[in-house]
Amino acid sequence: MSAPGRLVLGALPDPVLRTLGHFERAFGAVIRLTVPAREPGAADEVLYATPGFDRVTGGPWPSDTFQPPGGPELEVQVAQADQAPPGTVCEALTPSLDLAFEAAREIQFFTSELSERFEEINLLYSISETLGSTLDMDSGARKILGEVRDVMGAKRGSLWVHNTADDALHLAAQVGEDGRVAPLSPDDPDAITSMVFREGRAIIASRRPTTAERERGAGGDSFLSVPIRYSPGSGESRTVGVINLIGRLDGGRFSAANQKLLAAIASQVGAAIENNRLVRESLSKERMAREMELSHDLQMKLLPAVEKFEAADVAARVQPTEQVGGDFYQLFALPGDRVGVMLGDVSLHGFPSALIMTLTMSAAGIYAREAESPAEVLRKLDDALGEELATTEMYLTTFYGVIDPAAGVLVYANAGHPHAFAVHSDGSYERLTATDPPLGFAGPDAYHEGSIAWHGSDDLLLLFTDGLPDSLPRRTPPAGEALVLDTVVRSRFGSPREIVDALFKLSAEGEGPPVGDDRTALVLRL
Q1: Which one, 115, 171, 385, 519, has least CB within 10 Å?
Q2: Separation CA 439–CA 459 (nearest Å)
Q3: CA atoms within 13 A on the CB side of 383
Q4: By three-state DSSP, how is residue 440 classified?
């Protein structure tokens, strides 16, 4: 439902209203959403306005436009924000609203026949959020079953998943009264669950009443059983499990509407079950090489394309020692023509560090635009990742610097990253030393900042991870980090790309340690 007093005209979907409300609360934002007038002199159609919007003076305000699927072009304006610049809030709000409209459209596909049943629509939202936020199918399945049982007024529910290893249906979760827990054969002729799995179609049936039930004039429990199907992008869909609801609290029978809702839920659960199965198999079988290759491609696509970054001349390269790794870099075009540069190195390497790397990049993309300083960005990152780093027993060295060409200064925060340098046109260089321990080790009083003068295009920012110097030739001096710096100083008048190519050419000729580490280098010139 929309918030009273805020929706001026029209009916915005709940995800959109929640997104607008979140930005109002999180940033103290004053927002208006309109349909721009098509005719000269005509007034814009206001869809949403924060109370007091019309009393804010000093326009024009930061604005952006987007077009939701199947709808007219919309304009969002941010007149005021307490926690971040209005322009930054507007830039973040526009894609969030676009995604919110898209989510509303997708959910409507499943709930068009149930639009008047508010509890059931909320159920689909909740299940989607549960499946999207957990990798633990056991706890996720129990939570989903509990919500389904409550909305449909069922006495108990069960979720069965097919295991191809023993060709049996195993109980993944149950809620309510205890039922069968032993595995079921798909060929069991007496089990409704097995029949639904074999035939791939839903069943609404009723159990025969007991003698006591017949004496008081009551019927047997109604039984709703729906197959869980997985539909890949290509190929035929297949049944991967069964969801059961047994008995209604009101003594009635499950309806066709109940069946349709449970089928919509089963389609979401099916994709989650299949993803969970693929992860388990990929970790336990030798075919993981292909899975990791795909993960490598995806991870590389998460890194920003330096050739499309217009705020500076940048070159960067990441070479994981395995298919995926924990090295990463981020680039940010910040207000006032400032440039933000981040490089990080997750301890260990391989798939676990790649997960930390992905989480860090996602969080950094938000905090770099929210926070006022590099130290505040690292503080927020540590708060967001601290529990995950502690659980995985990993840590993360991170350098984040912001170059302000107008002020001629580089301000940075360095969480334990040893290889960060400013290289000057006269061949000298400065090490941008660590200001704090790595993320995962720093305490509540971290983080701090350092700064150096920045001389425009005369200076180079050089960042690399320890895998690069460790892989270089060590037969004659200079070696390791000294060889990296010597190479950059000699090539300092070349382009950043030429410098990075020279470093990795040396790395390819190197001997490297017995157990390699991810290699990353970034060179930036304004």
Answers
A1: 115
A2: 28
A3: 11
A4: coil
pLDDT surpasses 70 at 97: yes
Alpha-carbon distance 92 to 219, whole Å?
56
Q: Residue 483 and residue 73: Cα distance in Å, rounded?
A: 55
Neighbouring residues of 217: CB distance < 8 A, sequence distance ≥ 6: none
User: Please, which residues bridge with residue 398 across strands?
Assistant: 344, 415
179-183, 318-322, 372-376: range with highest mean pLDDT: 372-376
Is residue 329 a contact partner of residue 319, using CB atoms and an 8 Å limit? no
Q: Measuring CA to CA, how many Å separate 434 from each of 54, 186, 348, 429?
A: 48, 61, 20, 16
Q: Please enumerate, as own/partner, the contacts of 327-331 that have beta carbons within 8 Å and a separation of 24 or more.
A: 327/357, 327/465, 327/467, 327/518, 327/519, 327/520, 328/302, 328/303, 328/357, 328/360, 328/361, 328/520, 329/303, 329/304, 329/463, 329/520, 329/522, 330/304, 330/361, 330/364, 330/365, 330/368, 331/304, 331/306
The 10 Å Cβ neighbour count of residue 98 is 18
Write the CA distances from 230 to 19, 200, 262, 280, integer angstroms.
31, 11, 15, 17
Using only C-alpha atoms, what is the Rg of the chain?
A: 29
Residue 495 is given by DSSP the state -
Q: C-alpha 403: how far from its chain's center?
A: 28
* C-alpha angle 456-460-466 in degrees, rounded to nearest 5: 155
Please give the Cα distance from 506 to 483 (Å, whole number): 9
- Helical axes 481-490 vs 496-509, angle rounded to 10°: 140
Region label for 487, one of left (φ > 0), alpha (ψ between -120 and 50) or beta (otherwise): alpha
Helices (H), 285-423: 288-302, 351-370, 374-392
CA distance 325 to 344: 11
Which contiguous run of DSSP H or E holds residue 328? strand 327-334
Q: How many CA atoms lie within 13 A of 46 on its CB side?
A: 13
pLDDT in tens, 277-321: 776 666 565 555 565 666 667 778 889 999 999 999 999 999 887
CB 401 within 8 A of CB 341: yes
Confidence of residue 116 (pLDDT cuts 50, 70, 90): very low
